[in-house]
Amino acid sequence: MEGIKLEKPYVLHFITPAKNASPFDVNMAYDAGYDAIAQYTNVQLNEVTGLVQDAIFSRGPRGVWRTGMLIGGRDVDLAMDMLETAKKSMVPPFEISVFADPSGAFTTSAAMMARVEQLLTKHFGGTLEGRKVSVFGATGPVGGCTAVIASKYGATVEMVAHKTMADVEEKAAAYNKRYGTNITCVDGSTDELKVKVLESSDVALCCAAAGVRVLTIDQMKNSKTLKVVADVNAVPPTGAEGVGVMADGVIIEGTQIYGIGALAVGNIKYQTQQRLFKRMLEGQSHVYIDFITAFELARKDLV
Predict the structure, then answer these.
(1) What's the pLDDT tens digit per position in 62-79?
(2) Which one, 13, 25, 60, 259, has least CB within 10 Å?
(3) Predicted TM-score (pTM) above 0.90
(4) 3-class secondary structure for the chain?
């Protein structure tokens, strides 16, 4: 083989503050085309710069575009801080692509909002712009990301408190400060309060923990404005009664509301994550990917 110049392999450095790297993400990256995946667990924010610069300086200007970094974990804010730190650690022309997707929350949120917007456009003649979006299970990573996406794209967004208002208000204030959004909070701690929330909502997003029923058909059917209900819970009982896990834009029985189930969202999430990995692999320059980037790609693919 003397005289033949071999291309460098595609290498993904997977960093996570968690104890273990996600097998789901490892499989996704291999399936997308990475040749090797190195995993770094229990990573602290102050260690990111060293890891990035070890990765970029070892491969040369051509090798860096065949090198990527994935940021995992479960904390949205920490993942975004790590992404920002990684960007600041680059030394042009030594720059690699970095993809943040803690617990798959970024691509799940992007998939959910892209499908919601597609249904609004198809059946109600408009995008997220001007819609009222109510987020249940709002303090979790998917709930927070969907709230930010909806707000950034013109919706009026309220995060619904299931227990106390204080936790939700703290999250909303942090998102508003970081992303320049205008997310508000509302009490949804009783069945009666949920009905009141839905009375003026166009979209309800059920982002609560697995196995938690958030909304019932009786609560939903009282709303004269509700158009779409999306749920990311695949564990019985589903988060929204009447929305099966495979539901993909079908009318919820007894209502005129379109439902999107967890596996329908998951299918779009899978495709979005796969395409984002391929974007990192196939480009001749670096990209930085967060949940806004993921949403832009997902909504473009669904057009």
Answers:
(1) 788 899 999 999 999 999
(2) 60
(3) yes
(4) CCCCCCCCCCEEEEECCCCCCCHHHHHHHHHHCCCEEEEECCCCHHHHHHHHHHHHHCCHHHHHHHEEEEECCCCHHHHHHHHHHHHHCCECCECCEEEECHHHHHHHHHHHHHHHHHHHHHHHCCCCCCCEEEEECCCCHHHHHHHHHHHHCCCEEEEEECCCHHHHHHHHHHHHHHHCCCCEEEECCCHHHHHHHHCCCCEEEECCCCCCCCECHHHHHCCCCCCEEEECCCCCCCCECCCCCCCEEEECCCCCCEEECHHHHHHHHHHHHHHHHHHHHHCCCCCEECHHHHHHHHHHHHC
